[in-house]
């Protein structure tokens, strides 16, 4: 390790949030990553529209007890046996959001949004609404196959004319006269994992407002891959629904409650984005430090140049600040009742903006330190080159930075008034 800042402080120092169980999970994840996702493979898989990440990888992650950890609520005893052991030997009943942080943080060390999102992008946001509010028949059909990597699921909300403005979606679902099925028509865009998905947790406009349906890949469902700037292994796609018949039992929750479920899900999506953004930023710092320690310019190692130290130091201080805030908010997510977590949503929105801006800064500064190799696909600068392309994939999805900052400030003021009323 070229610097202590290459890793979060809990890995080498006492912490009020982490203990030996988290260190066991970290060690097991690192071993699994070395075996299944070495950098050589990541570079090999990083090509647009080719989707080279093998279908066996999600299955391997499911068998290792990794995929189930990304489904919020899996430790409540309803989804998995409380005595079942996840990766690292931690039982389901003892698993917390901090353990999930460790698995996602370690996965994100690969520095590839395509790989991270291939495994987690659809599952972590598409399955929780089904697991929490789906019918028993729907749960039976989706949960186990998805957490074992045998089937894939995604979240389909965004449309060509509806991004951060979720209420503007135009996809419709009309209930049949006998009430047994919905007919769905519409187009979704920028849907992560849509290329591979067997199930689409979809925002639709029903008679009673916006609702969520779990739509199976069947007749009338068409997916068209999209060529993105980065995140190439994630299978981002257009999804078109053309007179798709969906069983009424695939309604998630009740008609008209879709927006509430979507907004509740946003906290988890943004939390996951923050975790990966901070680790990607840390990877940039680590790569720049390692390069500066071995690269000589005019007879001196770059790391001895004060300008280089300033660049690395300015990045590190923002990464560590984001990590500290994330740890605090993760603790509050565990301890605060779900019906009182709205204020956490505001804080997560602010941290989502700050962490993605920090990532952008770290990618830029690492590229400046490393020079031409950071502009080269493959080779010693591959991680920084890849991450630089993927920054916008963190800054825009799950709420753009501008929307996040506005939301965070507004929620903070609402919380302030509520706290004043209790004095």
UniProtKB/TrEMBL annotation:
A Pfam family it matches: Acyl-CoA_dh_N
SUPFAM superfamilies: Acyl-CoA dehydrogenase C-terminal domain-like (SSF47203), Acyl-CoA dehydrogenase NM domain-like (SSF56645)
Gene3D superfamilies in alphabetical order: Acyl-CoA dehydrogenase/oxidase, N-terminal domain (1.10.540.10), Butyryl-CoA Dehydrogenase, subunit A, domain 2 (2.40.110.10), Butyryl-CoA Dehydrogenase, subunit A, domain 3 (1.20.140.10)
GO biological process: fatty acid beta-oxidation using acyl-CoA dehydrogenase
Domain Acyl-CoA dehydrogenase/oxidase C-terminal per the UniProt entry, residue ranges: 258-408
Necessary cofactors: FAD
Ranges for domain Acyl-CoA dehydrogenase/oxidase N-terminal: 20-150
Transmembrane segments: none
Family annotation (InterPro entries): Acyl-CoA_dehydrogenase (IPR050741), Acyl-CoA_Oxase/DH_mid-dom (IPR006091), Acyl-CoA_Oxase/DH_mid-dom_sf (IPR046373), AcylCo_DH-like_C (IPR036250), AcylCo_DH/oxidase_C (IPR009075), AcylCoA_DH/ox_N (IPR013786), AcylCoA_DH/ox_N_sf (IPR037069), AcylCoA_DH/oxidase_NM_dom_sf (IPR009100)
GO cellular component: cytoplasm
Domain of life: Eukaryota
Entry keywords, A to Z: FAD, Flavoprotein, Oxidoreductase
MF terms in GO: acyl-CoA dehydrogenase activity; flavin adenine dinucleotide binding
Domain Acyl-CoA oxidase/dehydrogenase middle: 154-244
Family named by the database record: Belongs to the acyl-CoA dehydrogenase family.
Name of the molecule in the record: Acyl-CoA dehydrogenase
Native source species: Paramoeba aestuarina
Lineage summary: Eukaryota, Amoebozoa, Discosea, Flabellinia, Dactylopodida
């Amino acid at each position: 390790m070229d610097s202590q800042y290459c890793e979060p402080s809990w890995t080498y120092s006492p912490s009020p949030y982490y203990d030996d169980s988290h260190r066991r999970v970290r060690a097991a994840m690192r071993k699994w990553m070395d075996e299944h996702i070495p950098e050589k493979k990541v570079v090999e898989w990083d090509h647009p529209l080719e989707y080279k990440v093998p279908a066996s990888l999600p299955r391997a992650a499911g068998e290792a007890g990794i995929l189930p950890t990304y489904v919020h609520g899996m430790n409540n005893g309803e989804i998995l046996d409380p005595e079942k052991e996840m990766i690292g030997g931690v039982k389901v009943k003892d698993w917390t959001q901090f353990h999930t942080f460790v698995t996602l943080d370690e996965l994100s060390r690969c520095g590839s949004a395509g790989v991270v999102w291939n495994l987690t992008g659809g599952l972590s946001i598409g399955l929780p609404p089904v697991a929490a509010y789906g019918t028993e028949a729907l749960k039976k059909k989706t949960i186990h196959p998805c957490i074992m990597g045998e089937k894939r699921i995604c979240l389909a909300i965004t449309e060509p004319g509806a991004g951060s403005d979720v209420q503007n979606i135009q996809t419709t679902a009309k209930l049949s006269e006998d009430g047994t099925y919905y007919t769905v028509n519409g187009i979704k865009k920028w849907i992560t994992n849509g290329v591979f998905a067997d199930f689409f947790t979809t925002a639709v406009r029903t008679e009673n407002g916006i609702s969520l349906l779990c739509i199976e890949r069947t007749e009338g469902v068409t997916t068209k891959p999209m060529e993105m700037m980065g995140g190439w292994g994630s299978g981002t796609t257009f999804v078109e629904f053309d007179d798709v018949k969906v069983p009424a039992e695939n309604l998630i929750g009740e008609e008209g409650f879709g927006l509430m479920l979507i907004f509740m899900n946003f906290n988890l999506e943004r939390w996951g984005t923050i975790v990966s953004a901070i680790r990607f930023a840390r990877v940039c710092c680590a790569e720049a430090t390692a390069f500066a320690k071995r690269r000589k310019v005019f007879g001196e190692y770059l790391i001895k140049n004060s300008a280089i130290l300033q660049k690395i130091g300015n990045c590190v201080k923002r990464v560590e600040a984001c990590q500290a805030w994330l740890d605090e908010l993760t603790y509050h997510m565990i301890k605060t009742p779900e019906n009182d977590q709205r204020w956490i949503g505001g804080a997560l929105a602010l941290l989502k903006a700050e962490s993605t801006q920090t990532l952008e800064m770290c990618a830029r500064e690492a590229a400046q330190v490393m020079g031409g190799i950071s502009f080269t696909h493959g080779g010693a600068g591959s991680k920084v080159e890849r991450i630089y392309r993927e920054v916008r994939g963190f800054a825009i999805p799950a709420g753009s930075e501008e929307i996040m900052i506005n939301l965070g400030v507004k929620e903070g003021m609402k919380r302030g008034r509520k706290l004043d009323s209790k004095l």
